[in-house]
Amino acid sequence: MNTPREILLKRHRTIKPQLERLRHEALREVTETNRQSAPAAQLTLVAALRLRWREFLWPCPQAWASLAAVWLLILTINLTTRDPQARTIAQAAPPSPEVRELLRQQERLYAELLGATPTRVATQTKAPALSPRSQRRDEIAIV
Fold first, then answer.
1. Taking CA 89 as the corner, what is the angle to CA 88 and CA 92, rounded to the nearest 5 degrees?
2. 111 contact partners, CB below 8 Å, separation of at least 6
3. What does the alpha-carbon distance between residue 14 and residue 20 come to, in Å, rounded to a whole number?
4. Cα–Cα distance measured from residue 18 to residue 118, given in angstroms and rounded to the nearest whole number
5. For the chain, what are the domain ranges?
6. How many Cβ atoms sit within 10 Å of the Cβ of residue 97?
7. What angle is formed at CA 98 by the lines to CA 96 and CA 101, rounded to 5 degrees?
8. How many C-alpha atoms does 140 have within 13 Å on its Cβ side?
9. Rounded CA gap, 13 and 66, in Å?
10. pLDDT band (50, 70, 90) for residue 75
């Protein structure tokens, strides 16, 4: 008794040589194409970087695209909801000397209330003139 597999193999035995011929033709075309493009196979730096970039992103391009879309969404929301007063405050003139003195006085009062010593404002001093750090003698010892 013949199994279904044996029946199918008997029917398709006549087609096997034709399939082999088609496979050889396809392989011949591929090898000829590879021979023709062999000089172009040497990659330039840009092409190599592009290839590496593609290999890095290829495992999950949808995830990278969605991540980029989320970042663009965050950026647009940030730009559209920016407070216009923040720009005007940043562009305001620096405080006058009277306001600065009042702020210093307020800091001193806070320090007194907290029991801390007030911080002193550092005064600018002139840098000392460069001088030798030691009185080293340049003598040669003769042994």
1. 85
2. 117, 118, 119
3. 11
4. 99
5. 1-35
6. 8
7. 115
8. 1
9. 52
10. very high
Q: What is the mean pLDDT of the chain?
A: 78
Considering only the C-alpha atoms of the chain, give the largest distance between any 2 of them, rounded to a whole number of Å.
116
Backbone angles phi, psi at 90, to 5 degrees: -65, -30
pLDDT, tens digit (0-9, with 9 covering 90-100), for 80-94: 888 777 666 667 777
Instruction: Specify the DSSP element, H or E, that contains 105.
Output: helix 97-114
Listed in sequence order, the residues at least 6 apart from 103 whose beta carbon sits closer than 8 Å to its beta carbon are 95
Q: How many helices (H) and strands (E) does the chain have?
A: 6, 0
Which residue do the tokens 């320090």 mark? 111
Helix (H, G, I), strand (E, B) or coil at 113: helix
Residue 36 burial (CB count, 10 A): 9
Q: Which amino acid makes up residue 88?
A: T
Contacts of 43 (CB under 8 A, 6+ apart): 51
40: which DSSP letter?
G
Q: How far apart are CA 62 and CA 4, in angstroms?
A: 45
Using the structure block, give the residue that is written with the tokens 């092409």. Answer: 47
Q: What letter does residue 127 receive in the DSSP assignment?
A: P
The structure's pTM equals 0.29
Count of residues making up the chain:
143
